[in-house]
C-alpha cells in the first residue's frame, strides 16, 4: 500500500495508538507473547489493551447481530438437527473472533 510505504499509518485512530497495528509489518503474535519486561508487554499495557480490545468488540458485535437476525423460535418447536445447528451457530462468533 502507498500509505504504508509513505509511513502514514503511524497516526492514532479513535482509541488505537496507530493504524499499522501491533505487528508493524510482520504477521506474528510475538508482540503479545515475547519480549516481556518486568511483567509488562513490549508495547506497554495501554497499547496492548487497546489492540486487544478489537477482537472483543468483534465478538460482541457479531453476537448481538446474530441474535437480532435469528428468528425467535421456542426450543420445543425445533427438531433435533435444527437445535444442534442453532447451538453451533451460537458459538460461531467466538470461533471467528
Description:
By secondary structure, this protein is an all-alpha fold. The chain has helices spanning 2-5, 30-33, 45-69, 80-90, 92-96. The longest helix is centred in the middle third of the chain and has 25 residues, at 45-69. It is elongated. 1% of the residues are buried. The model has no long low-confidence stretch (mean pLDDT 79).
Entry keywords:
97 residues; mainly alpha; 5 helices
Mean pLDDT: 79
How large is the count of helical segments? 5
Question: What distance separates the N and C termini?
Answer: 25 Å
Whole-angstrom Rg: 19 Å
Care to count the β-strands? 0
Percent range of helical residues: 40-55%
| Element-level helix/strand string | HHHHH
The chain-level structural class is mainly alpha
How does the overall form come out from the CA principal axes? elongated
How many strands, which pairing sense, and closed or not: the largest β-sheet?
Answer: none
| Oligomer class | single chain
Uncertain segments are none
% residues in beta strands: under 5%
Amino acid at each position: 500500500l502507498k500509505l504504508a510505504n509513505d509511513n502514514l499509518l503511524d497516526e492514532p485512530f479513535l482509541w488505537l495508538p496507530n493504524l499499522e497495528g501491533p505487528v508493524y509489518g510482520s504477521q506474528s503474535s510475538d508482540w503479545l507473547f515475547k519480549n516481556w519486561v518486568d511483567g509488562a508487554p513490549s508495547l506497554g499495557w495501554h497499547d496492548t489493551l487497546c489492540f486487544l480490545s478489537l477482537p472483543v468488540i468483534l465478538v460482541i458485535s457479531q453476537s448481538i447481530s446474530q441474535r437480532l437476525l435469528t428468528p425467535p423460535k421456542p426450543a420445543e418447536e425445533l427438531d433435533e438437527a435444527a437445535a444442534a445447528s442453532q447451538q453451533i451457530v451460537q458459538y460461531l462468533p467466538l470461533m471467528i473472533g
